[in-house]
Amino acid sequence: MSAREITLLGNPILRKKCLPVKDINSAENRECIADLKDTLADFRARNGFGRGIAAPQIGSSKQVVYINFDYQGPLINPKIAQRSRKTFTLWDDCFSFPDILVKVERYYSISVSFQDEVGTKKYLKASGALAELLQHEIDHLRGILAIDRAVDSRHIILRSEFKKLSKNRAMTL
Q1: What are the tens digits of pLDDT across the range 23-72?
Q2: How far apart are CA 110 and CA 71, in angstroms?
Q3: Starting at the edge strand that comes first in sequence, how are the strands of the sheet with 87-92 ordered?
Q4: 137 assigned to active site
Q5: Which of 5, 7, 68, 118 has its C-alpha lying 20 to 30 A from 42's C-alpha?
């Protein structure tokens, strides 16, 4: 169990629908969860940001995400059960394309059903930043990337350019 290399934009595994985890207690699943946790911690230590990661981002096509934010731990076979009508837009980023920001629209609040690392069925209600993060990570399990959710093609920008423009206030972000 260790930090793994992040799968980058262009790798076909990021576009595949992940398979449900059938044996939650398998050594393979425990290793995947540990690798996600270690990879997230490593990325965060090296880059100063990072709140969640999905299995395809470490080359695994399992329905597993690991979150370290307002909720901490794995979500196995997560499904969005409810969505609010209220939405919001934000600049999103991703480990798989860390130099790109994408303006996306997300539901303000959601409810997610999932299993934890021992197979217990759980239900998580989330709003704001946690809801956005969960939507982003669950999208990964369906082969959907933040760039697919861009509000339009003009709202995809390099992080370095975003910082320059934000500093100069030369662009309405």
Answers
A1: 999 999 999 999 999 999 999 999 888 999 999 999 999 999 999 999 99
A2: 14
A3: 87-92, 100-107, 156-158
A4: yes
A5: 118
> Which parts of the chain fold into alpha helices (H)?
27-47, 128-141, 159-168
Give which of 129, 95, 124, 130 is closest to 111, Cα–Cα: 124
**List of residues 6+ apart from 157 with CB closer than 8 A:** 100, 101, 102, 165
The 10 Å Cβ neighbour count of residue 145 is 20
Token couple for 129: 């930043």
| Token code pair at residue 96 | 């798989």
pLDDT of 93-110, one tens digit each?
A: 999 999 999 999 999 999
Active-site residue, from 31, 117, 132, 137:
137
The residues pairing with 54 across neighbouring beta strands, listed in sequence order, are 65
Q: Which domains does the chain have, with CATH numbers?
A: 12-83+109-150 (3.90.45.10)
